[in-house]
Amino acid sequence: MGNKSKKEEKKKEKDNRMGMKQAQAQPNMDKKDKKKNKEKKKEEENQMSIHEPEETSAWMPRKEYEHELAKLQIELVKLQEWIKFKGLRVVVLFEGRDAAGKGGTIKRITESLNPRVCRVVALGIPTEKEKTQWYFQRYVTHLPAAGEMVLFDRSWYNRAVVERVMGFCSEDEYWDFLRSCPNFENMLIRSGIILIKYWFSVSDKEQERRFLQRINDPTRRWKISPMDVESRTKWVEYSKAKDDMFAYTDTKSSPWFVVEADDKRKARLNCIVHLLGMIPYKDVPREKIVLPPLEKDKSYVRPPMSEQTFVPKVY
Q: Buried b / exposed e across 283-299, counting CB within 10 Å, b at 16+?
């Protein structure tokens, strides 16, 4: 009996020692787990910040922005119908520094519209053949017919800013453009085209933030090019080129409208409201649409589904 009790006491002592060791190790384990969870949370926040712009108190609240945008997009549809109904020809130019928000605004304007009525023109670098043509020639081919609105994501003003600063045109070509452009635009206006020009203005700090966002986000990386990066080193030259462009082409018949674009949401809404105000429009009378009953033909036999090739159900 004595030996048995001694064994039980030793076992209890051993269990107690093990329990103390586990109790001592537990805080360390808790610290490691907390550290891992903290690192994981930080990584998730970083991933979110890549895809979502960093919110600031100065920015328009997202819910308010989306509510206002939804209302304006309904008005844009009405404008589209009026342009088609009246056979208007509308050209809207979107210019500004890289990452100023031109593309985002164009996207919000067009996402609810008919691409056959409202189309976007975003030309790449000119071909060797186009380089030998009259400078405005490749843009003229994209001008609207009756009942169309064309949005230029960058336009003939490439020559006044980008080509000028980056050295892609000669001095003679540059000055010839500044002298010719007002006459060219007056020709368009006299022909009946409604011409509207927007310049999106962004600060150097906000441009830098957007560039970094594009660099870190795989879904946006295509938006930044080596030339965009180089443009950061020529900030003042771009400013001077823009000032000279305004001096020659900000005319009474074809003025520039500047959009302050540090807050993307406000910039988009302000631009859309202004665009709607530039073209007086009304509701177009429409016939009531009645959906006819589905046609049924008992003689029709559908081919076996096994004969068709389907997309795999991954989801």
A: eeeeeeeeeeeeeeeee
Residue 139, domain CATH: 3.40.50.300
CB atoms closer than 10 angstroms to residue 231: 21
- For residues 273 and 115, give the distance between their C-alpha atoms in angstroms, rounded to a whole number: 20
Query: Would you list the DSSP string of 145-176?
Result: -TTEEEEEES-GGGTTTHHHHHT-S-HHHHHH
Range of the domain at 73: 64-278
Which amino acid does the sequence have at 121?
A: V
- How many structural domains compose the chain? 1
Q: For 48-94, what is each residue's pLDDT tens digit?
A: 444 444 556 578 999 999 999 999 999 999 999 999 999 999 999 99
The number of beta carbons lying within 10 Å of the beta carbon of residue 97 is 25
**Is the separation of the CB atoms in 241 and 174 below 8 Å?**
no
Largest pairwise CA distance in the chain: 118
Does some domain include residue 194? yes
- Residue pair 210/100 in contact by the 8 Å Cβ criterion: no
Residue 48 covered by a domain: no
Residues 6+ apart with CB under 8 A from 313: none
Chain segment 245-264, per-residue pLDDT in tens: 999 999 999 999 999 999 99
